[in-house]
């Protein structure tokens, strides 16, 4: 066996393992049409936030972190959507992926919000939703089914999200 063939021999098994991991990761990712996984964490006021308690409302579950620039751009948009549509049945839950509560609090001192914020430092909720990037927003219908997923945040996303939310709010 030549030196080159010995070096290349492990490559196929590494590629097989890598592709299996990629398939497993994509299979675990939450997709539209699936039931929204549970949140089950306490918000900053000590209230337990559950998907079951939010059923009957249109819900946005937003994963964010203090170090994320697009998250800082998106947070005022979420606050505006919340204040505009809360009376029609919109609920927003912000799920912080910060390692420490202090980092999360520092961000919230600069970006005030009136909707529930939970700290998911252990990434338990993120493990159930598998957000592909920060921020990631899951728009859930009144029956608890994920209808739209927004990966990241760009300027035009605000109009799209608002349109999707309005459409779901009209469905009963």
Brief summary:
44% of the residues lie in helices and 19% in strands. It has 172 residues and is α/β, with parallel strands linked by helices. It has two domains: 1-30; 33-169, Glutaredoxin, CATH 3.40.30.10.
Provide key terms for this protein.
2 domains; Glutaredoxin; 5-stranded mixed beta sheet; 172 residues; alpha/beta
Write structural notes for this entry:
The structure is a single chain. This protein has 172 residues and is an alpha/beta fold. It has two domains: 1-30; 33-169, 3-Layer(aba) Sandwich (Glutaredoxin). It is 44% helix and 19% strand. The protein is built from seven helices and seven strands. It has helices at 3-8, 10-28, 51-54, 69-85, 101-110, 124-129, 157-169, and strands spanning 41-42, 48-49, 58-64, 90-96, 117-119, 136-140, 146-151. Strands 5-4-3-6-7 form a five-stranded mixed beta sheet, covered by helices on one side. Strands 1-2 form a two-stranded antiparallel sheet. It is globular. Residues 4-8 and 10-27 have low confidence and may be disordered.
Q: Note the overall shape.
A: globular
Runs in which pLDDT lies below 50 for 5 or more consecutive residues are 4-8, 10-27
User: Could you tell me the radius of gyration in angstroms?
Assistant: 19 Å
Number of helices: 7
The CATH H-level superfamily of the largest domain is Glutaredoxin
Sequence of strands across the biggest β-sheet: 5-4-3-6-7
Elements, N to C (H/E): HHEEHEHEHEHEEH
**Helices and strands: which structural class?**
alpha/beta
Task: Give the N-terminus to C-terminus distance in angstroms.
Answer: 69 Å
Largest sheet: 5 strands, mixed
Total number of strands: 7
CATH class of the largest domain: Alpha Beta
Q: Give average pLDDT, whole number.
A: 88
């Amino acid at each position: 066996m030549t030196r080159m063939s010995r070096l290349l021999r492990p490559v196929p098994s590494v590629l097989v393992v890598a592709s299996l991991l990629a398939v497993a990761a994509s299979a675990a990712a939450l997709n539209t049409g699936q039931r929204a996984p549970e949140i089950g964490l306490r918000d900053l006021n000590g209230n337990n936030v559950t998907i079951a308690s939010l059923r009957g409302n249109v819900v946005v579950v937003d994963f964010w972190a203090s170090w994320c620039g697009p998250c800082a751009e998106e947070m005022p948009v979420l606050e505006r959507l919340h204040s505009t549509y809360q009376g029609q049945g919109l609920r927003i839950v912000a799920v912080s992926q910060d390692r420490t509560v202090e980092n999360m609090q520092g961000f919230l001192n600069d970006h005030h919000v009136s909707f529930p914020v939970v700290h998911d430092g252990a990434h338990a909720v993120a493990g159930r939703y598998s957000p592909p990037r920060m921020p990631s927003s899951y728009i859930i219908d009144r029956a608890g089914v994920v209808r739209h997923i927004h990966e990241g945040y760009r300027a035009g996303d605000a109009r799209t999200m608002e349109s999707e939310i309005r459409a779901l709010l009209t469905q009963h």
